[in-house]
Design a protein that fits this description.
Jelly Rolls; 7 strands; 170 residues
């Protein structure tokens, strides 16, 4: 390698190193699986009334900003009848990504009255593409990828949980 090329390569390396704190996702697309970083939250019952049946789940409730930031990151599995419910405590635009999430997820966006607004099925692990509906929602339910289709869950179906005032207490 000639001297001029070495200088350019060294300069590029310095620029990338300087940008690392500002753009960590550029240099580190995701962390390796680390189950010690996964969170475990309080469990509560949740049901969804579909056109054909009522489906029962046990969900972890993520109600603080910190709990929601971690979400289902660093998990390698989740039972099909389990999920995580993100409670925003008010209607707002929701946007999620799959950074450091190792399993595909269905994201179910829910209005304040418990009605399903939209579903994003099989979100791709580690993707940083924003996922969310245009309408504001009160909550988001994350399930194992493919669960919504398999269980017949669709927009317009009704979710029952204590946060919507229409379900069992946690």
């Amino acid at each position: 390698m000639n001297a001029k090329l070495r200088i350019y390569v060294a300069a590029l390396a310095l620029v990338l190193a300087a940008c690392a704190p500002a753009f960590p996702q550029m240099l580190r697309p995701y962390e390796p699986l680390n189950p010690a970083k996964a969170q475990s939250l309080a469990l509560s019952p949740l049901t969804i009334d579909t056109a054909a049946k009522t489906v029962k789940f046990t969900v972890e409730l993520a109600s603080t900003a910190k709990e929601q930031e971690i979400g289902l990151m660093h998990r390698s599995t989740m039972a099909e009848d389990h999920g995580m419910l993100f409670d925003f405590h008010e209607d707002r635009r929701a946007s999620f990504w799959m950074r450091n999430t190792f399993i595909p997820l269905d994201m179910i966006f829910i209005r304040a009255n418990g009605e399903i607004e939209a579903i994003k099925d099989n979100a791709v692990p580690h993707s940083e593409s924003p996922i969310g509906p245009r309408a504001p929602v009160r909550a988001v339910l994350e399930l194992v990828g493919g669960a919504a289709l398999k269980m017949g869950i669709k927009p317009g179906d009704r979710v029952h949980h204590a946060i919507f005032g229409n379900g069992p207490a946690s």
